[in-house]
Amino acid sequence: MPVIAVIGAQWGDEGKGRVTDMLAEKANLVVRFSGGDNAGHTVINPYGEFALQLVPCGIFNREAVCIIGNGVVINPAVLIDEMERLNQRGVDTSKLFISDRANLIMPYHILLDGLEEESRGGKAIGTTRKGIGPAFADKIARSGIRAGDLLDKGAFLERLRLVLDNQNKILTNVYGAEPLSLDEVFQQYCQYGERLAPHIKETTVMLEEALNREEMVLLEGAQGTLLDPDFGTYPFGTSSPSIAGAGSLGSGIGPTKISRVIGVYKAFCSRVGEGPMPTELGFTGMAITRLDILDALPKLKICVGYKLNGETINHFPGSAVALEKCEPVYEEMEGWQTSTSDVREYAELPVQARQYIERLEELIACPANIICIGAKREQAILKEPIL
Predict the structure, then answer these.
(1) Residue pLDDT, tens place only, 65-108
(2) Residue 31 · residue 56 · CB < 8 Å
(3) Pairwise pLDDT comparison (304 vs 36), residue with the higher score
(4) Does 308 reside within a domain?
(5) Do 2 and 86 belong together in one domain?
(6) N or C, which end of the chain has less CB nearby within 10 Å?
(7) For the chain, counts of helices (H) and of strands (E)
(8) 41 annotated active-site
């Protein structure tokens, strides 16, 4: 069975949740592999409407095992609250597991996120101030605290004592903030650990066993390609890799095991945060969401290149300064100006809509597998098979 990665192809908010929710119906394991609770997914299915923050969309498939991978940073309070809200609405979370290698968001991360953003003044990056960036920074600096650390209170206390001492120096000496109490943070996170202990596992073993059984694994991305710290609009991006390669790194699955990569595109571009906003395409297959939003437009534009310093280029440069100078080169197409929300077969779409989709396929050089014409699970057209 395949390992399929679902990746945001733009700035996040492309509708990955509804695509993952559809594919998760057939999956044995669903793995969230990047980001934190700054990158939630909205899902509308027979259970109702849900705004997920950390829990994988596969949680609605009673047969699927869901994993929060090592590539995610976790705020335990947010996760526990999310699990309890799901349970209250009849959604079982007993098959939800957390990688013991996943780093935790600590109280000082949230404080530092806000203080650092405020210190940038007019050059703020536009973070969500949830501690995501500082938590990933600590992970790379080897001063992070992992979910597995909560399982041994003695070792956790010694680790926290060392880390918190350094963090308090930054809070007090750099920002003039009040220090955090070691005892208060320790007691709070011990309570989190007791609640989450049954869910914290060595998840790479679970994945390896599933692959040996040839089960279907779905890798659930967060945010979008253009927020990637290497290949996005740096420094106006996110703190963890959001491209297809992160699916391997953030879950513990070898890269050769990933058989399909589905890029999810919203039919129009939007983003949160600050920074330049180019447009870019590229994957083995794609899902186009919210095509219905374009129903009323008489004309549609597709960016096919950029003008930079008088030269036309077909990629966006790595420099944020150069990106701000880029002027898009548009190709214009006719709109269809009729509702598509009730269409369920590709051939029934207006001819102009099909021309638009087929031009996108040509430019991206991959098929459009799924076309979504609304937020509900059933509002989707399966144009090309994925499995």
Answers:
(1) 999 999 999 999 999 999 999 999 999 999 999 999 999 999 99
(2) yes
(3) 36
(4) no
(5) yes
(6) C
(7) 10, 17
(8) yes
CA distance 104 to 219: 21
DSSP secondary structure letter of residue 341: T
What's the confidence (pLDDT) of residue 271? 59
Q: Which structure tokens are listed for 207?
A: 């994945």
Mapping DSSP onto H, E and C, the string for 240-283 reads CCCCCHHHHHCCCCCHHHEEEEEEEEECCCCCCCCCCCCCCCCC
Are the beta carbons of 264 and 118 closer than 8 angstroms? Answer: no
Average pLDDT for 262-271: 77
Alpha-carbon gap, residue 325 to 335, rounded angstroms: 29
CB 267 within 8 A of CB 291: yes
- Residues 71 and 39 reside in one and the same domain: yes
What's the pLDDT band for 275 if we cut at 50, 70, 90? low
How many Å apart are CA 55 and CA 77, to the nearest integer? 13
- The whole-angstrom distance between residue 43's C-alpha and the CA centroid of its chain comes to 14
Sign of CA dihedral 81, 82, 84, 88: positive
30 is written with which tokens? 């669903």
Q: How many domains does the chain have?
A: 2
Q: Which of 37, 41, 138, 292 is catalytic?
A: 41
- C-alpha 24/C-alpha 238 separation (Å) is 26
- Domain final residue pick, 160, 178, 197: 197
Buried/exposed 89-99: b ≥16 CB within 10 Å, e otherwise: eebebebbbbb
CB 103 within 8 A of CB 138: yes
> How would you label 319-353 residue by residue, b for 16+ Cβ within 10 Å and e otherwise?
eeeebeebeeeeeeeebbeeebeebeeeeebbebb
Are 117 and 129 in contact, with CB atoms under 8 Å apart? yes
The answer, yes or no, to whether the previous bond of 235 is cis (omega within 30 of 0) is yes
Please, are residues 58 and 68 in contact by the beta-carbon 8 Å criterion? no
pLDDT digits (tens, 9 = 90+) for 51-65: 899 999 999 999 999
Per-residue DSSP letters for 185-227? HHHHHHHHHHHHGGGEE-HHHHHHHHHHTT--EEEE--S-GGG
| Residues 5 and 149 both lie in one domain | no
CATH number at residue 23: 3.40.440.10
